[in-house]
Every structure is written in structure tokens, then in C-alpha cells.
Model the fold of this input.
Amino acid sequence: EVRLEESGGGLAQPGGSLRLSCATSGFDLSGSSMSWVRQAPGKGLEWVSTVHTGPGYIYYADFVKGRFTASRDNAKNTLYLQLNNLKIEDAAMYHCVNLQNGYWGQGTQVTVSS
Done:
């Protein structure tokens, strides 16, 4: 059974930080490109980042460049997203996804408020 379970969301102040994790099982994470997407209330899905299998092949949406850092630990079957310098507009449900196979996690909620 394929499982993707996000955690680490919560409430942060503008300028604050959070670290999201996505624990995976049931498929080979080391051979999979993985992405983070987000959805704010009343808005559509936004692509945030993709972490490919090769070292250094990590891509970001322009609106998070320099603030968010994606990484993976294949030994732990876990994907990470470090969120720094958070902005109000970063508030959303964040999902880790395997777009190639259509695997999605339930998401973790990030709230940014003073």
C-alpha cells in the first residue's frame, strides 16, 4: 500500500519558519521525483517545488525561491520542505506528491499570522 504522510505544519508568524516532512512507504522513493504543491482556501493548486532523483536537481516556484528548501532522505523514505521567512500568502495546505504515479498525501496545514 502506498502511503504519503505529511507533518510539521502549524502556526507561524510572518518571517517565521516551519519544517514540513513527508514520510512515504509502498514505493521506491529513491527512484522517484517528488513534488510539493499547496492549496490556499478558495484558490487552485500551486506547484511549489520538485526534487528529482539526481543530486542537486531541485526546482522551485519563483515565489518561494530563496525562502524554501526542499530535500530528501532516501534512507528514511522521507521528503522535507524547509519554509523560512514565511509570508501571509504562504498559508495553505501543503501536499507532497508523486506526480508520475498520482500518489498524494493528505496534506499538512500551514497558517501564517501575527
Observations:
- The mean pLDDT is 96.
- The CA atoms of residues 42 and 81 lie 23 Å apart.
- The radius of gyration is 13 Å.
